Amino acid sequence: MPDSIESAQYVKPFVYEGMSSKALHFSICETQSRMQYQDPSALALEYTRTMMGFLLFNPEPHDITMIGLGGGSLAKFCYRYLPRARIHVVEINPHVLALRDEFQVPPDDERFSVIRDDGAQYVRDRASRCDVLLVDGFDSQGLPARLCSQRFYNDCHETLQPGGIMVANLHCDHRHYDALVDRIRSSFEGSVLVVDGGEQSNSIVFARRGQAFERHRPGVVRGPNNLDGLAANQLLAAFALITSALKDQRC
C-alpha cells in the first residue's frame, strides 16, 4: 500500500505554540505532549513524571521499551538522564513520527531508536526482554483496544525480565477503567500499584513481573543516588505520590 494511502488511515495531530512551550494535540481539548522551550528534555506534564516513578524500584534499567512516542517527552528524559539504558520507542502513527524533529527527539544511535510499528504486535513478537515497559499509546479516540486487551497485558508480562516493571497510563474516566486494572492484575498475578497521576484524569498503573510491591518498604522520599539532581528535582513530587500509594497499599 502506498505511504500516502496508508498515512490517510491515521489522524494527523497539530502543534500549538505558546509563549514558553509547544504542545501536541489531536484535539484542542486533549494535550498529548508538551515541550518547554528552555528545557526540551523536561517533563512538562505531571503524569509523565509519575510514570518515571519506576526509578524508585529500578534506578538503573538497562533496557527500556516505550509504546507511543507523542512529543517524545519520556523518550528525551530517559535519553538524557539514563545514559546507560538502551531505549526503544514504538509509534504507529506516521504523522506523529513526522513531528520528531519539531519536538527535538534525538536521532537514532547505538542506544536509542524510534521505529514505526504496532505496539501490541511489537510486544508480542519481541525476541529479547526489557527491564521497563512504558505504555502511553493514545490516539485521537483515546486508548486503542489493542493496547488494553487481556492478551496485550499478558504479552507485556512475558516481554519483561523477572522483576521488570510495566507502567501504563490510563484515564480514570475510561468507561472500562476498572476492567482494565483488573486485566493488569490478572496478567501480573496481583503485583500492581495504582497511583493517581495528579492532573486531569490520569491514573498510572505500575505492574511488576514476579515481585510484589508490598516488599518495597517506603521510607524518606528521595531520588535514586545515581540520578542527576535536575532530574531528581523534577520527580520528587511523583516519588512522594508513589510512596504514599505504597503506604496505603500496606495498610
List the helices and strands and how they pair.
Elements: H1 3-7, E1 14-17, E2 21-27, E3 30-36, H2 46-51, E4 63-67, H3 73-81, E5 86-91, H4 94-97, E6 112-116, H5 119-125, E7 130-135, H6 150-159, E8 160-171, H7 177-187, E9 192-196, E10 202-208, H8 229-250
Parallel strand pairs: 4-5, 4-7, 5-6, 7-8
Antiparallel strand pairs: 1-2, 2-3, 8-10, 9-10
Helix pairs in contact: 6-7
CATH architecture: 3-Layer(aba) Sandwich
Strand content: 25-35%
Number of self-contained structural domains? 1
Q: What's the total number of strands? A: 10
Largest sheet, described in full? 7 strands, mixed
- Major beta sheet, strand line-up: 6-5-4-7-8-10-9
User: What is the CATH topology?
Assistant: Rossmann fold
- C-alpha Rg, in Å? 17 Å
CATH class value: Alpha Beta
Helix and strand string, N-terminal first?
A: HEEEHEHEHEHEHEHEEH
What share of the residues lie within helices? 25-40%
